[in-house]
From TrEMBL:
It is an enzyme of class 2 (transferase). It catalyses: ATP + protein L-histidine = ADP + protein N-phospho-L-histidine. PANTHER family: SENSOR HISTIDINE KINASE TRCS, SENSOR HISTIDINE KINASE YKOH. This is histidine kinase. One of its GO terms (molecular function) is kinase activity. Residues 281-492 form the Histidine kinase domain. It is found in: Cell membrane.
């Protein structure tokens, strides 16, 4: 069956390319937001400038009307003057004069006034938004305003302020009200805004290209030590993890990465060396009883008539039991190495386990050993009862093999911990070997350990079991003999049914 090809992703795989695209996308979003804000602000400010620039022509036009003069049609700003009681415009220009002269005025007429408008400053105007209808009958001038909506500034004039000659010249009645409309064209604000938009667009595109390029090459340069680390670690083999990566002197994250990788490689190297030593020691330990067993059987087979068969069988059985115990210890260590720390289970009463072990403890054949216990009550811990039974048995068996006449087990509750001590009155262990006794296949007194059945794995198994139950096992100083101390987290007692 053909294996389906993996789907190709459009997103690039290289970190430097992805980082450059991500930074460029973020920068684009920020630039778009800034550009939109600038667009609105520039348009608002330019519109306000156009309104401010329309004030002066509006007031100048109003002053001409107060003098009775008809303004010129030539104006840079469209305007229209309307009056009450008159359907046509009094005057118009700047583009508003393209409408037919006889047609009604385009912009609205004011209400009729009975007296002049008086303000603190002497003049006033209003701003409105007006839609100019499409009613041209002639071609439009330079401003095509029909159908558009514009801002319009307006100011009112009472015809009573004018002389009779001026009112007649303007063609309005003496009691009429004139309104001057001046249209604020959006061309200038729009042109300014469009120019700013164009500049922002070009600057934004150039900025995005520069940001992307700088990010790409910066990340590329920053990742060179990572590539060097990758090349160095690629040469590491399981059988020879002695290669180390160069640690940069910059002190940044790459330095921490290189230091961590070197620490990991060192642990792998130590683990590989420990595994090699373990395999060599296991082979040596297995070879010794196998050699003894094979030699005994070969001699018995070669000289059957002179062989003491009960002795030969006893020797074979003893070496077989030794092989069996060694194989069980090796399998247990292998399971402990592959197993995660034990989750909370139980609770298990160590006091009860110590009492059961004391009842079943066998005496060594060469000397009597007194086994005593000292407890203050139940001592509950989390874990598996079988594991704790094996742990205690290994500690007690080790103490019994080395004790002169007495082994004492003490169990105490202290500071939410259970402290168990196994103390013998033997020769003890030198301080410099306090940790070596927990190494696998280590025998400080090799001949005596072999005679008394030790495999060199009891204490390592006990410590591994302690660690798997979140505890510690150490050899503490003692005036006489050896004292092993086990600390385990306290567990609440089981709920009573």
């Amino acid at each position: 069956m053909n294996t389906a090809e993996p789907r190709r992703r459009w997103w690039p795989r290289a970190v430097r390319t992805r980082t450059a695209l991500a930074v460029a996308s973020t920068a684009a979003a920020i630039l778009v937001a800034i550009g939109w804000w600038l667009h609105r602000d520039v348009h608002r400010q330019s519109t306000q400038i156009a309104l401010d620039q329309t004030e002066a022509p509006l007031l100048a036009l109003a002053d001409q009307l107060r003098e009775g003069k008809i303004p010129s049609r030539r104006s840079a700003i469209p305007y229209e003057v309307v009056a009450t009681g008159r359907s046509t415009a009094v005057a118009s220009g700047g583009g508003m004069d393209v409408f037919a002269p006889a047609s009604p005025h385009v912009l609205p007429a004011p209400p009729r006034l009975s007296e002049p408008l008086v303000t603190d400053s002497g003049w006033s105007y209003e701003q409105r938004t007006v839609r100019i209808p499409e009613r041209r009958t002639e071609p439009a001038g330079r401003f095509d305003m029909g159908g558009g909506t514009y801002a319009v500034l307006s100011t009112d004039i009472w015809a009573g302020e004018l002389s009779s000659t001026g009112a007649a010249n303007l063609g309005v009645s003496p009691d009429a009200t004139l309104r001057v409309h001046m249209v604020v064209l959006p061309h200038t604000p729009n042109a300014i805004t469009d120019s700013v938009n164009s500049l922002l667009l070009r600057a934004g595109l150039v900025s995005l290209v520069l940001i992307s390029a700088v990010t790409y090459f910066t990340v590329r340069i920053a990742l060179r030590p990572v590539e060097a680390i990758r090349v160095a670690t690629a040469s590491v083999t399981p059988g020879d993890p002695r290669e180390r990566v160069s640690v940069p002197a910059t002190g940044h994250e790459i330095t921490a990465l290189a230091t961590t990788i070197n620490s990991t490689l060192q642990r792998l190297d130590d683990a590989a060396a420990q595994q090699r030593r373990f395999i060599a020691d296991a082979a040596h330990e297995l070879r010794s009883p196998l050699t003894t067993l094979l030699t005994s059987l070969e001699v018995a087979l070669a000289y059957p008539e002179r062989t003491d068969w009960p002795t030969a069988v006893t020797t074979a059985a003893r070496q077989t039991r030794r092989l069996q115990a060694l194989a069980e210890d090796l399998l247990l260590l292998a399971r402990l190495d592959a197993r995660a720390p034990t989750a909370d289970r139980g609770p298990v009463d160590l006091t009860a386990l110590v009492s059961q072990l004391a009842e079943r403890q066998e005496q060594p054949p060469d000397r009597p050993v007194t086994f005593t216990t000292d407890t203050t009550g139940p001592a509950y811990v989390h874990g598996r009862p079988d594991d704790y039974e094996r742990l205690l048995r290994n500690l007690v068996d080790n103490a019994t093999r080395h004790a002169a006449s007495r082994v004492q087990v003490t169990v105490r509750n202290q500071d939410q911990q259970i402290i168990l001590s196994v103390h013998d009155d033997g020769l003890g262990v030198p301080a410099e070997n306090a940790e070596r006794v927990f190494e696998r296949f280590v025998r400080l007194d090799d001949a005596r350990s072999r005679d008394r059945g030790g495999t060199g794995l009891g204490l390592p198994i006990a410590r591994e079991l302690a660690h798997h139950h979140r505890g510690t096992l150490v050899l503490v100083p003692s005036d006489t003999g050896a004292c092993f101390r086990l600390r385990l987290p306290h567990a609440p007692p089981p709920a009573k049914e």
